[in-house]
Amino acid sequence: MGLEIERRFVIANDGWRGLAAGVQYRQGYLSVEKERTVRVRIVGDQAWLTLKGNISDISRHEFEYTIPLADARTIMDAMCPMVVDKLRHRIEFGGFVWEVDEFFGDNAGLVLAEIELPAEDTPFVKPDWVGAEVTEDGRYTNAYLSKNPYNSWPQR
User: Which residues carry out catalysis?
Assistant: First the structure.
């Protein structure tokens, strides 16, 4: 069993650009519910099936399994009407890795930063390019964005 403790923030400025190259991610969602999500993720020539179950706004159970790339593509094409495309930039700062996700397609214009922590109360320092925290705002999850793209929000 895995445990994911993650906090999410909007980006305040472009100070993160140029600190790390981005890697293309494509995520297809088989199930998006408040209590759980099931997704297929493709990164390069690797693929995973991931199941997540909420514990709190910050913590989730996470089970992730490597699957054949051909299977992932078939699952995504045949069974995932909800897809998110993004570039992920991994930036080391203050002893942690920040993942900056730059979204494309229907979510273009949205850029988020995430930090995974060993415990919910772990202290950390935010880089100056990290803005307001949106961890507890479910609209900023990839699963929500797959069903309700950023560019469809009435007030962004």
Answer: 29
